[in-house]
Amino acid sequence: MNRFTGFGEEVPTYCCKPSSKRSAAMRFHAKRRWESATTSYQREQRWKAVVQDARWKYDISYIARGKDDCVGSGAFGQVRPCVELSSRADRCVKSIVKETWWTRPAVVQEIELLEMVSGNHPNIVEYYECFEEINVIHLVLEYCSKGNLSNVILSKRFKEGGETLTAKISYQIAGALQFLRDLQIVHRDVKPGSQAISMATHRVAEKWTITDCFSWQSRIMPSNLVFAEDEVVKLTDFGCACLADDAVQDLTDIKGTPIFFSPEIHQLPRGRGYSFPADMWALGICIYMMLCKGAHPFMKEGGALRTRDHHTGVFDVDWFTSWSARDALQWALMPHPGQRIQPNELMEHKWCYSHGLGGGTFSRSIRHKNVLDSHGNWVSIPN
Fold first, then answer.
1. Per-residue pLDDT tens for 39-67?
2. Taking the model in full, what pTM does it have?
3. CATH number for 334
4. Within a 10 A sphere around the Cβ of 246, how many other Cβ atoms?
5. Has 159 been labeled as part of a binding site?
6. Longest dimension (CA), the chain
7. What is the rounded CA–CA span in Å between residue 348 and residue 371?
8. What is the Cα–Cα distance from 13 to 30, expressed in whole angstroms?
9. Cα–Cα distance between 195 and 174 in angstroms, integer?
């Protein structure tokens, strides 16, 4: 188990890769079972298998308790604090409105993926159980009281921690992504709001738009990265996640947050699809935002995407950013997925090693860089 030193104590940051037998079993039991359930009875039985009769165990009257702030928002619902009545322990409840019958299979898939990863990695949020009311499905999750990464990027403490804190957070997220990759899971929605940190609850505007997200001045971001302790970041919100084949890039349905989409997603429907490297591109955007005070590497001040720079991986960084951090960013934001750095390679990059993390053994060079031209085709240019 790799470890890093936080403020005065060591915390685990990456668990061992699960055995091949266990990985195969997990994938087998989670893969497309809703589609294979051909009758309404079978679908109902599968639903009962993941939904518990646990409403009486939790106090979710958050407004009456004075906790009316939204901790975060995910792909299908909002997340608010609640209390487990027997232990008085704080929890989070993700409430999903049952708008249609097809809300159920989406929730079932999220629950099954959460059950696969919950408790198996210190940088992935824990899932406890699920219950439903008349119009709402509730997922009970670990309570991360320190806020999300968007809050922390703008905080005074983050400015004081600087690049060292950025490296520690990036190392943990990369560890979580490598763990997901070992289980053949693509998260598809890695963003500063989807990592959770234990810092302070944060109110999200009830109506935010894509234009708000594009603006460099925006303070509103959906929550996906949260903090459970002062320097322990956790990946959450598996509403967009899915299982994928490690051998081929065959995901063609577009899910996630547009400003974190990789070039191969922008290439759709012409391209062959996308897979695990798309998560590393999103992590590269997160790293850039941490290093550059919340700025996006490929957005103009008005909020429009600099398409040419995005497709060629060209961006500017602040002058005080170290050369090793710039190199890590160049690899994470490599336009072609086949040339992009992998999570375990980022953990071994000299940038992480310079801050006391990993072994610093990553070594790779390329003479030609593959980029997207104006017609959406891959072309090779000197690196």
1. 666 666 665 665 666 666 777 765 444 45
2. 0.78
3. 1.10.510.10
4. 10
5. no
6. 63
7. 25
8. 26
9. 12
